[in-house]
Specification:
The structure is a homotetramer. Chain A is α+β, with helices and mostly antiparallel strands. The first copy, chain A, folds into three domains: 2-162, Butyryl-CoA Dehydrogenase, subunit A, domain 3 (Up-down Bundle); 166-299, Aminopeptidase, CATH 3.40.630; 302-439, Aminopeptidase (3-Layer(aba) Sandwich). Chain A is 52% helix and 10% strand. Chain A has helices at residues 2-18, 31-43, 47-63, 66-79, 84-96, 100-110, 113-121, 127-141, 149-162, 179-188, 197-204, 240-243, 279-290, 306-314, 323-329, 341-361, 372-379, 395-401, 415-425, 432-439; strands spanning 169-172, 209-215, 225-232, 257-265, 296-299, 383-388, 405-409. In chain A, α13 (279-290) links the parallel β4 and β5. In chain A, α5 (84-96) packs antiparallel against α6 and α8 (127-141) runs antiparallel to α9 (149-162). Chain A starts with a helix and ends with a helix. In chain A, 41% of the residues are buried. Residues 1-25 of chain A have low confidence and may be disordered. Chains C and D meet through α1, α3, α5, α6 and α9 of C and α1, α3, α5, α6 and α9 of D. Chains A, B, C, D: This is MCD, Malonyl-CoA decarboxylase MCD. Chains A, B, C, D: GO terms for molecular function: malonyl-CoA decarboxylase activity. Chains A, B, C, D: Residues 81-163 form the Malonyl-CoA decarboxylase N-terminal domain.
Chain lengths: 442, 442, 442, 442
């Protein structure tokens, strides 16, 4: 460790000297300087100075403000495409005689220099993490700067190699996990907020709770994704009781159901990188080994796009709703609609039916379900098992889905079959109950 | 483990059914079948069946004889280049409007489907190791089948990502190392053979011996490269005493010199993949931490091409040798030339001088030294320190270098500087003694 | 784990049946029942039922209230001495013919059955921890129940074997330490309170802080003792700046001094069990290895008995104080004495001198220093280096020592010599400055 | 490590100076010197010099020849009993007023100083191992020197504390176990010799083989006991096939029976120290967890005392044999008795019957079975399941038991019950088949 640190300090000084910079200028301040450094990094053959330059570029980049970063990212995207002359030559050669060898040469010539730049930046200490953070910046700017799309493609291409499934490691998170990792669990929990160390402890320590996270060696202490699990006697129909304070934990050995009630992705910069769709099954398998009496593995999941879809359908007469349904839904617009038990009962029945319809018919790009959580679990081989109206009565639960939550079921014997049905044919696998609900008339 | 194994067994059966194969046919026997399987693998989206297919392909490949393997490799190289139609379209689009986005699209279109195939094969259990072994086959066939070059390029490209320096781990190898790794040290030792467990123990257990190996998580128990070290009082001038049986080990604390006397690459299939040129320095640093009294880190290295070079120079009057030198060297042709001490003394002096000339003037491709061991150590930042004639009197030592060995010196304070001098300018960094020797007249 | 738990559940049921207890009566309620169980435990030969009985006894004991525990402890102390008949026979046999063999037999006959009871209780799951807690109870009752002294002696005898130095393990405590251990650091900190996780983090995470704890395998996650360390440029003269919030940490590499500013024993039940006097030196050595530039290892320690000693001396005219000193000390009685800088300066000078006298002359049992912190560090081989008046201005600091703190110096080259001087001759090793101070006249 | 070594070197030098020995005299040569050193060790209070002295004594002892060692051991046994004066006073005080406190004081006074000496020797580096080896010496001399019995008693008393069951750790031994431990498995195998690394590998690597060893932290790499396991389809009736070379291993998952075919104690110096009788069950449990399809756990065990017992019974007309049986057994005296199949069949039937009788009726001290292997397994809670005549046809097998071997069955549901039946009532638990055999008439 010290050696590497010393080495880099020495080399960095030297490489700065080589490119004409005074020692004291430890932080390049202008985006333009970073572009020059990137050119220098691409042109060098020496590894030592390369590592030092990579470090300087990433450190310098992180010290820039938002505009400076935009400038650097655009410069990389625009200026570091393939060598145009070389590419033209390769096209000409290939067109003249389209052999496999010339096709391969064309592929090499067409490679954007951005990819080599990113590879070299990756050699800096903690370079991978810096690049994941850099991609967060790219994603946040894509709408305003579509020119960054090429850089995003490069990053996705390389990340897909580096975050190869074979490197991912599952580790149980519990109250004996190192504190520096636990504080990240607090920070990254995206579904049901963890407010402090005491609440964290309530999620980890009772014997009817489990938590697992996936790690990658190059990101060391940074979890990629984690799942929180509650052990119960029955498939739960509401989130409130699961995360309420107090209550006596159930003896783990008495549990029959494992509920995945919160799944959080931790690294926005890795959006779209598949960690392999079998990860959640590792947790199922882990639990089954520890507690052989568990028979049922389900989620209790939000339905994030349901309210938006419903609003859209209500606004059109030619959509998924009958006019009768549209009429009944008017009651939803009263802020206090859940205060009358009779109204709640009627509306919840209707919402469940419409949610079933939503899952089975609302499609996005590539004929995949509109609902992102459904895409995740169906892609993992789960089955949409049950729809629970009135399951999340928090403000955000009512806002995004009028309180509806669902259970996805992971049945080990069916998991690959379901996965293949979804992956190959985009089939939304559901229980017969959900199917019946979707077909039901009012 | 069991879960994954079970899963794969299930999935594999199912995927065979899907592609119309009876269960019992566990091993495809014909190369042509494997090509079909490869097509199937490339066309599927489901991950479960993909992993199963990958496994079947690799297992099937390993069961083939040499001709069958050649057939499969050629089929992959020839048939799985880029999609020609799509590539032609991308060229046309780019030529019409050469934006960065279209250049990027062209790069993607030009990617050989071989690369995607290799990526998917890599997901099979122990897939990486199978692919490293497969590349051994490719390398062995390159001369006879130059069409395999494109496949080799693909493998090198992907291996370079996967064997990213950040994943390499140094571990000390000693007598408390697991036996399954130790047996590989015995097997892979390439410089000075280890005959049995007793000899292995003599290289590992005495307190003046050390051994370090580099590992990669995806190859688990397979070392990539290892170095054997002897601790001594002085820079050694001959190999014999270092590996002789018997003798009392020196107390480690009395040593001043660490001698890297054997460095073996273990995986032929990774030839040309740079593991980063700073690896050997990790060992230096490790030793320095353990034994702060060590002052000098040198190799005792063979000179594998010297005799061949000398023979060539002797055959021409316009080469590197004076006619006087050519005359004196005639004595080398007598099989018993080392039996007369006077002759030995005179010839050894001459051989040392010519070896110095060889290192400084004999160049191969890219203006790099002809000597492969010199390329390795100079690239690592070492300095050619001393030339030792009469250092290796074994049959092979006499055959490859007339008994000459050399010491490369690793000076931590100079290592990056030397590395950069070699990497950027191909400078052969030597001690002044070697320089003087090279300049000396008879 | 599960197996052992299952096994114990089964066996416990069975052993309860054997001794005539209904299954449902899981908790013996009366102290008298526990005495019966103890007799049963001593009389059995079967290990399985013995372990179950041991568990029942310890669980039952922990469920008792304070009076019930007193009753059980007294019963063990009184009733489970040696077998009197057997002892009388052994005395007679020895008196008749005092051979070594008969002396040995006498020793065995004289062993209190309490020791065998404690050994068997130790086999219960977490038995050792339960026994350490039980000794806390014994210690708390010794004054009121001197008959418990014999039980305390037995526990000390056995603990000394079990907490054999060879089993102790030093581990660094930092922000990546498991949370369940960190919460014990918060709980056991006895010198300078840690209020919450944020304060804990300030003591562990900055690069100029270190913490080390000693563990024993049979107490798993229970630290026995821990030290908190601050890295500084100079030997500190006051505690305030060391534990203040905010401030920039010093680069670890710039530090020259390591200050042990808080040392907490965690297990009252192990009072008087020596963990070997070389433990703190392991930390010194650990730090020296990590940071070779450190030259000085000191404590900043409280002087817990100084104010009490001084009050006693002030109350007598024949004690350690001159009448002039007694006069000057009257100013201490004003609650606001530290508000006048002139008075503070004068009094601090006097207090430093008297503290030096206190360390060198105030003795307790066995001619050892009265000050318990001094006994600990001198016994460890430290030297009393410097006296700092006005070093701890907290309410407790003023109450126990009028604000005086001291530095003990750990000089690796002198540590054994100092230790031996103290262990063999009770010499209080001090710097010449402290000696001069002690000799100084007003 | 280095620190401790350095420290000891310094302290050792100093302690030698203190006791008037020149530095250069590193090895005391005479037993008498060691006795003086032992006195010095007992009289010191300083821990540093104590550790150094302990090391000198143990090193010096190991350098002595057999007679020198005898002399030292006898001196310790004779001279370091309790302080006779103090013991006499304690007896007098106790006799005058036999309180618990005085009984406790008498126990302390009666403690042989040998025990304190052994405790202090244990603090030397690797002291515990040295003391285990020293007890081997004591055991080897007990017959000739009964005066050593008191020292043996002291060692057993202290070892029983130190080798407390809670510290024992089970580890699987396989082909990835460190070589320095594997070589000890080769060395300590006591039942069926392992000739070289290749044979070792055959016992560890095939998937139908397992090996487990028990370790203790103070003996580091020294196994205490290990078991070799073969996985089979049926309970085996002969040892030959199990350890024969060649043969295809059975898939672990197809096995139904785990056979403990070799159990070796490694440390003679720990003879008689119980490691707790539930150790073998940990292995059963471990196997059950890994391979849930295993249903049967048996040994294939030798019957070491059977032939001797039979010879004795044949020699008397009033013993366990009928005259008819004695007549039939005459055939055993022919060296080639196993060459006639008819004779073998008849004799094997008789031998099985007599072996059953031997197990059920032949008793040693304390009404325990004469057979030591039976005592071990019955004490562990196993049941004598089956008797196999003609099971071990090796020379030693024929010599010790006329070829008879037996299976002990470990039935997890019965294990504690069996253990208690043996421990409390010395009951020999057998299958009904064995019982019937024992009752059978010819």
């Amino acid at each position: 460790m010290t050696y590497v640190a010393d080495l880099l300090a020495t080399v960095s000084r030297r490489s700065r000297e080589l490119i004409g910079w005074p020692e004291a200028d430890t932080r390049p301040r202008k985006a333009a300087d970073l572009s020059l450094l990137a050119d220098a990094l691409l042109s060098r053959r020496g590894e030592a100075s390369g590592v030092a330059l990579a470090r300087d570029i990433l450190t310098g980049y992180e010290a820039l403000d938002a505009d400076g970063r935009t400038e650097v990212l655009l410069a990389i995207a625009d200026r570091l495409g393939p060598d145009r002359k070389r590419l033209a030559d390769a096209i000409e050669a290939y067109s003249a005689d389209p052999t496999e060898a010339r096709a391969a040469a064309l592929h090499v010539a067409a490679e954007p220099r951005r990819q080599e730049l990113v590879r070299r930046l990756n050699l800096a200490p903690r370079g991978t993490l810096s690049l994941v953070r850099l991609r967060e910046d790219v994603l946040a700017r894509l709408d305003d700067h579509p020119g960054l799309k090429v850089l995003d493609t490069d990053l996705v291409h390389l990340f897909s190699s580096w975050f190869n499934r074979g490197f991912l490691v599952v580790r149980r998170i519990d109250w004996s996990t190192p504190a520096n990792i636990l504080e990240k669990i607090i920070r990254y929990e995206a579904v049901h907020e963890i407010r402090d160390w005491d609440e964290l402890r309530r999620r980890l320590e009772p014997e009817d709770r489990r938590c697992y996270a996936f790690f990658h060696p190059q990101l060391e202490d940074e979890p990629l994704i984690f799942v929180e699990v509650a052990l119960t006697a029955e498939i739960p129909a509401a989130i409130g009781p699961l995360i309420a304070e107090g209550g006596t934990p159930m003896p783990a050995d008495d549990a029959r159901v494992a509920v995945f009630y919160s799944i959080s992705n931790c690294q926005n910069g890795l959006a779209g990188i598949s960690f392999g769709s079998f990860l959640i099954k590792q947790v199922v398998e882990e639990l089954k080994r520890e507690l052989p009496k568990l028979t049922t593995f389900v989620t209790l999941s939000p339905v994030p796009r349901f309210a938006a879809w419903l609003a859209k359908e209500r606004a059109t007469e030619t959509g998924a709703l009958t006019s009768e349904e549209r009429g009944a839904l008017a009651a939803l617009d009263k802020p206090d609609w859940r205060e009358s038990p009779a109204r709640v009962e009627k509306l919840d029945r209707l919402l469940a039916r419409l949610a079933a319809r939503y899952f089975l018919t609302a499609k996005g790009t590539g004929n995949r379900p509109l609902d992102p959580v459904a895409r995740f679990h169906l892609g993992n081989g789960a089955r949409l098992e049950r729809i629970n109206a009135g399951a999340d009565l928090s403000a955000s639960g009512l806002a995004q889905s009028h309180g509806v939550m669902v259970n996805y079921l992971y049945d080990l014997g069916r998991i690959e079959e379901n996965h293949e049905a979804y992956a190959e044919r985009r089939q939304v696998v559901t229980s017969s109950a959900v199917k019946k609900l979707a077909d039901a008339k009012a």
